[in-house]
Automatic annotation (TrEMBL):
Fe cation binds at residues 283, 331, 396, 579. One of its GO terms (molecular function) is carotenoid dioxygenase activity. The keyword Metal-binding applies. This is 9-cis-epoxycarotenoid dioxygenase. InterPro entries: Carotenoid_Oase. Its cofactor is Fe(2+). The lineage of its organism: Eukaryota, Viridiplantae, Streptophyta, Embryophyta, Tracheophyta. Belongs to the carotenoid oxygenase family. Signal peptide: none annotated.
C-alpha cells in the first residue's frame, strides 16, 4: 500500500451529514429501535432518542458536480452498477433481521451521539465568568461523526472524524468544527454515499464476509483507491514537532492546520516525511522531558505489533517487531522514564469467527493477559519482560512510572469488564474501575488494587481522562477522569488522589452530560519556577450538553478545587465525542506548514 501523502488542494465545505434527510427532521428518531431477542442485553451505547427538534436547513455546497464524480470506463461503470445492486439486496436482507445493539444506528447514533454539520468560525462567544488569563490557545476535541446515513449496521466508532475547536485569545472565544478530510471521506463524497465497509458495524458474520468481497472487488476494479488508506481519523488529536495530528489506529495520522481565525483545515495524510509506512496508535505518547513521541502499530490480521519512536525533530527510530500469540487489539499503552508498557490482552481479532456467523473482535478466555516491559530505546524484542496480568483488560492507561526501590513499574489505568462489551452484546453491565497495577521486574509478580473505594457496594466507573501531561512517565498524584455513569454517558468529572483514593467530584446536573475532561497544566515559566508549580495547578476543559434545552457549552474549571471559572456558550450542538488536546497560542504560531498547494476554506 502506497503511503505517499495526499497534499492536493482540499476544500472544506459547510455540509450537513445525512443532508438528503434534513428536511424530514431527525432521520433516526422516526423509526423504532428493533428489539433483540434478549431484552436484558446491555451495550455501550443504549441511550434515549433525542428530542424531535427540527433542524434548520444548512447552507449545503453542491459536491456532486461532474468534476467531482468518479470518472470510470464502461467496464467499471457496469461492474459498479452490478456491485451496487448486489449490495442493496444485501442491506435489505440484513435489515429484515434484528440488528445487534452494538451495530444498530438507531442506538449507536441516537440522542446527542447524532452527527452534526460542519460549522465555520463563530467568534465573540458569550462567556459567563472569567476565562483565566494564562489560558490562551486552542482546545481541539476529536470524535466520530458520520457524514452519510448508514445503509446497514453502524457502531459509534465507525463514524468519520470531526474535530471541534475552541480558540481562546485573551478572554475572547471562538468555535468551529470540521470533518477531517480523510482519503476515505473524499472518495465517499465523490460517490455521494457511504461505500467503505464499517469495521465494527458491518463486518459481522456471513454478510460481513460478502461485504469484504465487494469491497476488494471495487478496489481491484479501480472503483475505490485503497493505496492511500481507509482510516477515519476520529479518535484523538496530538501536537508534535509543530504539527497537529488527528489519529485513529487503523491508518496514518492526518495533519490539520488551525488558521489565525480559528478554523480547521486538513493538510493531508501524514507519513512523517516518508518514514512511516504503517498505522499509528490512537494514543501515541510524548515524553515531557525528552520531547520524543512513542507509538505502537498493530494489524488486524497479523500476530505481532510494531514499536517505534520519533525524535523531537521527527526522525524515526528502527521498528521493533513484537510477536504475539494472536492478532490483538492494543488501543492504548504507557511509558515510563525508561520503559514502554505494552499490553497483550484478551481482546483479539479472529476472522474465522465471521464464518461462524459472529464478530471478528472477540474476548479469548484461553489467551493469557500479560504486560510487556520493554526498554524505550530497544532495537529488538529480546529485552522485553512479560508479566502475566490475570483477569485484566484496560482500554485506556492514564500513566506509569518506575519505583526502583521495589523493582516495580506502576501502571494506572481503568480496568474494564466485560472486556469486549464495547464491540459485542453482553448480559453483564459494563464497568470501568480505576486501578493501580504493580509489575515486579525481578519476580514478575503482578498485583492490582482499586484506587477508589466502593460506595454502598458499588465502584464508580471512571473512563476517558488524563494526568498532568508534563509528568507523563513520572510518578503523579492526581488524575482527572470522566464519571461514566449512567454508561455510556458522562454525568460529571472527578479529580482522584492516586495515593489516598480521595475523590473530588463535579456533577454536571440533571439531564446534562459531557465527555473527556482535559487538564491544561500551568506553564512552568508562568511567573514561577518549575519547582514551585504544583501538579494540579491548571485548568480542566470539558464539553457539556444539556439534553433538556439541547444546548452545548464548554466549562473551564480550576484544577485544584474543580470550581467553575468560566462557561462558554457554544453556537451549536457538540455531540459526545472521544479525545482531545490543548495547543498553546505560542505553539500555534510555530505550526510547521508544508502544504504543496493552496488549502482553501469555504463557508
Amino acid at each position: 500500500m502506497s503511503m505517499s501523502m495526499a497534499l492536493s488542494s482540499i476544500s472544506i465545505n459547510f455540509t450537513h451529514p445525512f443532508s438528503s434527510l434534513v428536511n424530514s427532521g431527525h432521520p433516526l428518531t422516526n423509526k423504532p429501535i428493533r428489539k433483540t431477542k434478549n431484552t436484558n442485553i446491555q451495550c455501550t451505547l443504549e441511550s434515549e432518542n433525542s428530542p424531535k427538534q427540527p433542524y434548520n436547513k444548512p447552507l449545503i455546497t453542491n459536491e456532486d458536480s461532474d468534476t467531482n464524480k468518479p470518472q470510470w470506463n464502461p467496464f467499471q461503470k457496469t461492474l459498479a452498477s452490478i456491485i451496487d445492486k448486489f449490495e442493496s439486496a444485501l442491506n435489505s436482507r440484513e435489515l429484515q433481521q434484528p440488528l445487534r445493539k452494538t451495530a444498530d444506528p438507531r442506538v449507536q447514533i441516537s440522542g446527542n451521539y447524532f452527527p452534526v454539520p460542519e460549522r465555520p468560525v463563530v467568534d465573540s462567544l458569550l462567556v459567563t465568568g472569567t476565562v483565566p488569563e494564562s489560558l490562551n490557545g486552542v482546545y481541539l476535541r476529536n470524535g466520530a461523526n458520520p457524514m452519510f446515513e448508514p445503509l446497514a449496521g453502524h457502531h459509534l466508532f465507525d463514524g468519520d472524524g470531526m474535530v471541534h475547536a475552541v480558540k481562546i485569545n485573551n478572554g475572547a472565544v471562538s468555535y468551529a468544527c470540521r470533518f477531517t478530510q480523510t482519503e476515505r471521506l473524499v472518495q465517499e463524497k465523490k460517490h455521494g454515499r457511504a461505500i467503505f465497509p464499517k469495521a465494527i458495524g458491518e463486518l459481522y458474520g456471513h454478510i460481513g464476509i460478502l461485504r469484504l468481497i465487494l469491497f476488494y472487488t471495487r478496489a481491484l476494479a479501480g472503483i475505490l483507491d485503497l493505496r492511500r488508506g481507509n482510516g477515519v481519523a476520529n479518535v484523538s488529536v496530538v501536537f508534535f514537532n509543530g504539527k497537529i495530528l488527528a489519529v485513529s489506529e487503523e491508518d496514518l495520522p492526518y495533519e490539520l492546520q488551525i488558521t489565525p481565525a480559528g478554523d480547521i483545515v486538513t493538510v493531508g495524510r501524514y507519513n512523517f516525511d516518508g518514514q512511516l509506512n504503517c498505522a499509528m496508535s490512537a494514543h501515541p505518547k510524548i515524553d515531557p522531558e525528552s520531547g520524543e513521541l512513542f507509538t505502537l502499530s498493530y494489524d488486524f490480521s497479523k500476530s505481532y505489533m510494531k514499536y517505534c519512536w520519533f525524535s523531537p525533530e521527527g526522525k524515526k527510530s528502527p521498528e521493533v517487531d513484537i510477536h504475539l500469540s494472536a492478532p490483538t487489539m492494543v488501543h492504548d499503552f504507557a511509558i515510563t522514564e525508561n520503559f514502554v508498557v505494552i499490553p497483550d490482552q484478551q481482546v483479539v481479532f479472529n476472522i474465522s469467527e465471521m464464518v461462524k456467523g459472529g464478530s471478528p473482535v472477540i474476548y479469548d478466555a484461553t489467551k493469557k493477559s500479560r504486560f510487556g516491559i520493554l526498554p524505550k530505546y530497544s532495537t529488538d524484542e529480546n529485552s522485553i519482560i512479560w508479566i502475566e496480568t490475570p483477569n485484566t483488560f484496560c482500554f485506556h492507561f492514564w500513566n506509569a512510572w518506575e519505583e526502583p526501590e521495589t523493582n516495580e513499574v506502576v501502571v494506572v489505568g481503568s480496568c474494564m469488564t466485560p472486556p469486549d462489551s464495547i464491540f459485542n452484546e453482553t448480559e453483564e453491565g459494563l464497568k470501568s474501575v480505576l486501578c493501580e497495577m504493580r509489575l515486579n521486574l525481578k519476580s514478575c509478580k503482578f498485583t492490582r488494587r482499586s484506587i477508589v473505594e466502593e460506595n454502598n457496594g458499588k465502584v464508580m466507573s471512571l473512563e476517558v481522562g488524563m494526568v498532568n501531561r508534563n509528568r507523563i512517565g513520572r510518578k503523579t498524584r492526581f488524575a482527572y477522569l470522566a464519571v461514566a455513569e449512567p454508561w455510556p454517558k458522562v454525568s460529571g468529572l472527578v479529580k482522584v488522589d492516586l495515593e489516598s483514593g480521595e475523590v473530588k467530584r463535579h456533577n454536571y446536573g440533571d439531564g446534562r452530560f459531557g465527555g473527556e475532561p482535559f487538564f491544561v497544566p500551568r506553564e512552568k515559566n508562568d511567573g514561577v519556577g518549575e519547582e514551585n508549580v504544583k501538579e494540579d495547578e491548571g485548568y480542566v476543559l470539558a464539553f457539556l450538553h444539556d439534553e433538556k434545552t439541547w444546548k452545548s457549552e464548554l466549562q473551564i474549571l480550576n484544577g485544584v478545587d474543580l470550581k467553575v471559572e468560566a462557561t462558554v456558550e457554544l453556537p451549536s450542538r457538540v455531540p459526545y465525542g472521544l479525545h482531545g488536546t490543548f495547543v498553546e497560542a505560542k505553539k500555534l504560531v510555530g505550526q510547521r506548514l508544508e502544504t504543496k498547494e493552496k488549502v482553501e476554506v469555504k463557508n
